[in-house]
Amino acid sequence: MDTTTKPSLGDRYSDWAVIVVTLVAVLLGWLLMSNVQSRSVAFEAAGVKALIPAGWLTDKADKGVILHTTELGGSGFGTTYQLEVVPVAGGVLPAQVAGLYSVKRAQDLNTVRVLDQQKVSVNGHDGYKVTYAYVNADPDVTLANVPVVVRGVDYIFVAGDHAVVATYRASEDNYETDFGRFRRFLESLNF
Amino acid sequence: MADQVCCVCGKPAGRAIGQRAFCDEHFESANSQRKGVWRSAWGQVIALVVFVVLVYAVEGFFKPAFGQTALVLAGVVLAIVPALIWMAFFYQQDRLEPEPKGYVASVFILAMLVAAAIWLPLEENFFHLSKWMYADTLTTLLGGILIVGFIQEFLKYAAVRYSVYRSAEFDEATDGVVYATAAGLGFATVLNINFVISNGGVDLGTGVIRIAIVALAQASFAGITGYFLGRAKFESEPLWWMPLGLTLAAVLNGLFFWLRTEITQSTVTLTGGGSNPWYGLALAAVMAGSTAAILTWLIRRNIKSALAA
After folding, report:
1. Around B100, how many Cα atoms within 13 Å sit in the side-chain half-sphere?
2. Which of A167, B21, B76, B114 has fewest C-beta within 10 Å?
3. What are phi and psi of B268, to 5 degrees?
4. ipTM, 2 decimals?
C-alpha cells in the first residue's frame, strides 16, 4: 500500500499510548484471572484439613472418600481433586499402600496404565506418588460422547493407622495447565 | 499555510482543519459525509436480521438432515455470509466514491489473520476464559472488558492502523469507520468459523443467530474505534484521544459480552429448559443500529463545525 506521510510525533505518541493502555488493561485482566483461580475455601473432614478451590462442584462423600470436587465450566472431562482416607496397619509404608491402591485403581478405571511412581516429600510429609493415565467414558450410554484420555496422579501419605490419598485427575489437554493449582491444594493439606 | 503540506498527499496545503493542513482536494474529501457508508451500515443490520429469519424458517420448515461434514460446511458458509452482505451493500451504496476493493479486502484478511494467529491461541491456550470468567457477575464483566474487550479491539485497531491508515486512500474521516468495519467483520468471520469447527458443525437455526450476533457486534465495536482513528488522522486530537476510543470500544465489547450471557443463558423450569438466542440477536441489532446512528451524527456534527471554522 502506498503511504504518503510519515507519522507525526503526536501520532507516534498516540500509538504508544494505545499500546500502553492495552497492556495495562490486559495486565489487570491477568491479575483478575489469577485472583479468581486462586480463590479457595477451607475444608475439614476426618481430621484432614485443606484449602479447596472455590466454586467447584463438591459431591457427597462416599466409602472413605472425604472429598470429591470437580471444576465447573469448560467442556469435556472436568478437572477433579479427591481426598480419601484408608485405614491401614501401623508401620506400613506409603509405597506398600500404593501397591494395594493400584489394585483398586485397576478395578475402578478403564485401561489404566501407570506412567511413573516415586517417593516424594510434601510439606515435611514423606509419601509416594503414582502417575497414571486411563480412558474415561461417560457412564450415561445415551450420551454420544467420545471417551477421553485422562491423566491422574495419586499422592499417598501415611499418618498413624490411616493413609491419606490425594488424587488429581484432568484431561490430557488440561493436565499440565491445571497442575499448579493442585500443587497449592496439596501443600495446604494438613492431617 | 504556504509552507505547509497536505497531511494526506504531501502536496502544498491551502486549507486546514484544526492544526492539520490539507490541499483543496483532500479538504473536500475530509469533509465528505459519505451517505453510502451509513446506508450500508443500516442495510447490513436489516439484511442480516432478514437472513437469520429466513435461514431459521427454512431450517424449521424443511428440517434438513445433514451429516457432520455437511453441517460444518454449511456453518462455515453461514459464517462468511455477514461479510458478503456488508460488502454487497457497501459497494452498492459507495459506488460514486469507492474505496479500493483490494484495500478493504486486505484489511478484512489481515483482521482474520490476527484473530486466528493471536486472539484464538491467547483465548484457548493462555487465558482459558471458560474456566474462570463465569465465576460471578463482576468477574464476567471485568474479564469481558479487560481481556476480551481490550485484546480484540486492539487487534482490530492494529489491522487498520498498521496497514491502510497512512495510505493516500485513507483520505476521509469516514474511511476509519469503513476500514475498521471490514476489520471487525474479518475478525467475526474467524470467530464464527472457529465456533462452527470446534463444535463439529452447528444447528443451522440457532447457529445462524449466533453468527449474526458476533458479526454485528464485532463490526459495531470496530466502527467506534474507526471513528476515533478517522478523526485522529484528519484533526489534531490530544494524546488521550485514541486510547479513549479503544477503551470505549473495549468497554462496550465487555458490556455486550456480559449482557448477552445474562439474557440468553439457559433457564431450567418445571416445564422444561433452554436458552433464547433471539434476545441476543435483538440486543446486537439494537446496538449495531444505535452505533451507526451515533457515529453518523458525530461525523456530521464534526463536518459542520469544521466547515463553520
Report:
1. 12
2. B76
3. -120, 125
4. 0.82
Size of interface A-B (CB pairs under 8 A): 101
Domain annotation covers residue B38: yes
The arrangement of secondary structure in A39-187, i.e. its CATH architecture, is 3-Layer(aba) Sandwich (3.40)
Helix axis angle for B204-234 and B68-93, nearest 10°, is 40
Q: What's this model's pTM, rounded to 2 decimal places?
A: 0.80
Q: Are residues B24 and B163 in the same domain?
A: no
A18: contact with B, CB 8 A cutoff: yes
Tell me the pLDDT tens digit for each residue of A46-100: 888 999 998 888 887 677 889 999 988 666 788 999 999 988 887 889 998 888 8
In-domain check, residue B306: no
CB contact under 8 A, B10 and A28: no
Instruction: Mark whether B142 and B99 lie in a shared domain.
Output: yes
* Yes or no, beta carbons of B239 and A75 under 8 Å apart: no
What SS3 state is found at A169? strand
Please report the beta strands in chain B, taking only residues with DSSP state E, as ranges in sequence order: 15-17, 20-22, 267-269, 272-274
Domain count, chain B: 2
Phi, psi of A147 (to 5 degrees): -60, 150
Most B CBs within 10 Å: which of A30, A31, A36, A80, as the mutation test of the B interface? A36
Structural domain for B8, as ranges: 1-31
CB B91 within 8 A of CB B167: no
**Dihedral of alpha carbons A29, A34, A35, A40, sign:** positive
Q: A114 in contact with B at a CB cutoff of 8 Å?
A: no
Report CA B46 to chain centroid distance, whole Å: 15
Q: Collect all residues from B whose CB is shorter than 8 A from any CB in A.
A: 5, 7-10, 103, 106, 127-128, 130-132, 134-135, 139, 142-143, 145-147, 149-151, 154, 157, 161, 163-164, 166-169, 232, 236-237, 239-243, 246-247, 250
